[in-house]
Fold this sequence. Notes:
36% of the residues lie in helices and 25% in strands. It is of the alpha+beta class and 204 residues long.
Amino acid sequence: MEGLLRERDNAVAAHQVQEHLDEEDSEEPEELVDEPDEYEARTIFAPRKYRKLSMDQEDKAQFSRMLKDHYLFDRLSKVWLEHLVSTAEHFEYPTGELLIRQGYLGSAIYVFSEGRASVRASADRSAEKSAEVARLGGGDVCGEMSVILSEPATASVVALQRVTAYIIKRDVFEELVESNEKFANAVYALALERKSVQIKKNTR
């Protein structure tokens, strides 16, 4: 098993995203659900294989703590944090599964609870030419900028091993912001602030 994980952690192996969908050993989730790669009307990319997990009070408490540690949500009121937690779901994804695809709108905000994932980007959006720009693990968040700003993802995210994540689906988040203008303005302002900081870093 360790050899398999080392191979999948290798930067070259991570390029071959679609080839990593072979069955894993005992860690491979059973009864995976197949979904379409994208929704044609809005070019939203969604993972193809996953398994929904139960989410008890302990999970909700953990998810709440994770949100409080994130720059977009740490300044939100307790009420709005509770709203986010109440809409969240817990999912498991197999090794090699593509969670976010560069150039497409993300289908959800992901907050990792277990496992590791690779963030990969390329100038021409080619998987073969992509390079790893970051690693994600427990407590890390991805997909938030694409969902909040409704912009295509600037990088792809692929599971390097079995991962579990709390997610807030795009449509659920959109319903939440549409129902409360103050919440929408607060989150949107924080996202723009973060994007501005990233642009300044990239232009230095």
